Amino acid sequence: MLGNSSKKSKGGGNRVDTLIGHETEIMGDVHFKGGLHIDGVIKGNVYADGESDSVAIISERGRVEGELRVPNLLINGLVAGDVYAGERLDLAKNARVRGDVYYQTMEMAGGAEINGKLVRTDEVQQRYLGHEGSADEPVREPPGEPSLDIDPDVEPDTAADPPVGPDRES
After folding, report:
1. Per residue in 62-75, pLDDT tens?
2. Torsion sign across C-alpha atoms 41, 43, 45, 51
């Protein structure tokens, strides 16, 4: 997972600057820099400010009810909201995400669940996804479907089809 990544953060690995304990419930948005470890509950959005090497870890006991916007994210708990991982997203076996997931690089362990859409973004798109989300989000067109080009001026050839009805002899 994040610890196995060949690209280590400038801050010396996965250090934890802020810990939200399992007996803690925060109601409101959380803005952080560096490392954030969540064992408790956050009922609000979580934003990494400034540093592109910020890391958030949501443990098996952790829960976030809101949007997550973090460059590097490891989820092993519950997230009820959209997830925006600017660089790397790791979903451990107990991860449960109910919301859309926007990622650049993702690793997903067996047992992890996502109930939402997965959208791979490149670095430029991720930078322009504002905190409001969907209004600034680039529109992705579905892959092309085969078209049925029907010319309204051409009459169908009915001579090849035998007539059907009671007047037809068998």
Report:
1. 999 999 999 999 99
2. negative
Quote the number of domains for the chain. 1
Q: What is the pLDDT of residue 145?
A: 47
Structure tokens at 157: 């050839």
Domain assignment of residue 84, given as a range = 16-128
What is the reported pTM? Answer: 0.66
- State phi, psi for 73 to the nearest 5 degrees: -140, 130
Whether residue 57 is contained in a domain is answered as yes
Q: Dihedral of CA 141/145/149/152: which sign?
A: negative
CB within 8 Å of 144: residues ≥ 6 apart: none
Question: Has residue 165 been placed in a domain?
Answer: no
Report which DSSP code applies to 113: E
* CA within 13 Å, CB half, 142: 2
Q: Cα(159)–Cα(152) distance, rounded to whole angstroms?
A: 19
Instruction: Say how many Å lie between the first and final Cα of the chain, rounded.
Output: 72
Q: Around Cβ 144, how many Cβ atoms within 10 Å? A: 6
pLDDT tens digits for range 27-68:
999 999 999 999 999 999 999 997 678 999 999 999 999 999
CA distance 75 to 94: 8
